[in-house]
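agent> fetching stored inputs for the zinc ion docking request
agent> found them:
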Amino acid sequence: MEEIPLWYWLIVFFGFGACVGSFYNVIVYRMPRGISLIKPPSHCPICKKRIPLRYNLPIVGWIWLRGKSACCKQPISVIYPIGEALCGLLGALALYSAVGFGTDFSRRVLKPEVWATTATMFWLLLGAYPVCAIDYKYKLIPDSISVGGIVAGLLISLIPGGVTPLQSLCGAVVAGGGLYLLGWMATKLLKKEAMGFGDVKLLAGYGALMGVTCAVETLIVAALLGILVMVPYGMIASRKNKGSQSEESGQIPFGPFLAVAAPFMCLWGNDLLNLYVKYILE
Ligand SMILES: [Zn+2]
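agent> prediction call returned; pasting tokens
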């Protein structure tokens, strides 16, 4: 393990990410059609024949078949391998960012904390995509990502060198509980629901993955990003909808902002805090 150079690990993590992307393709196809994710196994949507494993390999399968199904020669959309490749790049980026970037691709990856950060970044980067897509479209955050993040954070905390199990547990409770309290107060003040419970669970997951400090920073940066985007968006939307009574118009869900801010805070949250302390507080 210790002899394996960085470039090799990057290819391995590209492969992991592409597999996750392949799974996303299955979800995107099956969920809206009400088909179970596990049964039946991969089959051609047109002639219903089973797809052999070798053609199911992410990206490679599509290139192998030159974009046409093996059974009935129907074209397969290029969207599928592109999605897999993008997820592959995110997977490789998880490791590449954890080693601190750099141009020496033949160096060895030795430190255990690199693996802890890689696992966290892998979850954050590959989780960000479904949070953005699903929250934007359906205005909800799936529990498999938010509650799953709490479970993943606690598990990753067992890898030495990163967030400790105690920090992980405190992170989930304090970040999730704090945001819940904030939302509860805002609801009382504004007399309408101010914060979805999905956001609370998502931030609790970020607390478990990154600890309290980075989770709080994620919340602050996400709120600032949200204001930057929502104010002009709201103005345009309200101008467009002048006269119409739609209450929903101009509303953007908060989840995507949290999901975008989280990986940045995971990498640079501590630097940001140091800068803040140095220049603002001193
Ligand atoms: Zn077919």
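agent> quick read of the result: The pocket of zinc ion is lined by residues 44, 46-47, 49, 69, 71-72, 74 (CB under 6 Å).
agent> awaiting further instructions
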